[in-house]
Design goal:
CATH class: Alpha Beta
Low-confidence stretches: none
Strand order of the largest sheet: 2-1-3-4-5
Strand content: 15-25%
Number of domains: 1
Radius of gyration: 14 Å
Largest sheet: 5 strands, parallel
CATH architecture: 3-Layer(aba) Sandwich
Oligomer: single chain
Shape: globular
Number of strands: 5
Mean pLDDT: 94
Distance between the termini: 11 Å
Helix content: 25-40%
Length: 144
């Protein structure tokens, strides 16, 4: 089943995990469908973001999110934009997978970690070596 996937990861909040984003997006593309936001995983994207007007970025990304079947968000690097995208996806009743690495030494936002009563949202704590398995398990359950 080919899906349209919206991948969310930090851009202006910091690019420390760009290599991991690349690995995640590549796997999503190879196994599950089209990643509408593949640029988030580009190693060429800097913290300054894209050379587009903020309104254009917002409107384009919201159109992609509306079109997507599922949102996958790597939430280890705090990002206001990713939090906003998750909130909008909850509102749209999209299935949401949030991925967080406790070994990073960072703390997951209580608004994400505490969202256990949101039926379309799943938060998975993982280690980097496990990320592909975590994604595969989530999509296997989603496609049932």
């Amino acid at each position: 089943m080919s899906m349209k996937i919206y991948f969310a990861g930090s851009i202006r909040g910091g690019r420390d995990d760009a290599q991991l984003y690349y690995k995640i997006v590549k796997h999503l593309q190879d196994k599950f469908g089209q990643v509408l936001t593949e640029h988030v995983a580009s190693l060429d994207v800097k913290e300054s973001g894209e050379q587009m007007d903020s309104v254009e970025i917002h409107d384009r990304d919201m159109a992609w999110l509306t079109d997507a079947n599922v949102l996958v968000a790597e939430v280890t690097q705090p990002s206001l934009g990713v939090g906003y995208e998750i909130g909008r996806a909850v509102e749209m009743k999209k299935p949401i997978l949030c991925l967080f690495r406790p070994s990073s030494g960072k703390h997951l936002s209580a608004m994400i970690g505490g969202a256990v009563n949101i039926p379309n949202m799943t938060v998975k704590y993982y280690e980097e070596a496990e990320v592909i398995n975590v994604i595969n398990e989530y999509f296997a359950a989603l496609q049932k």
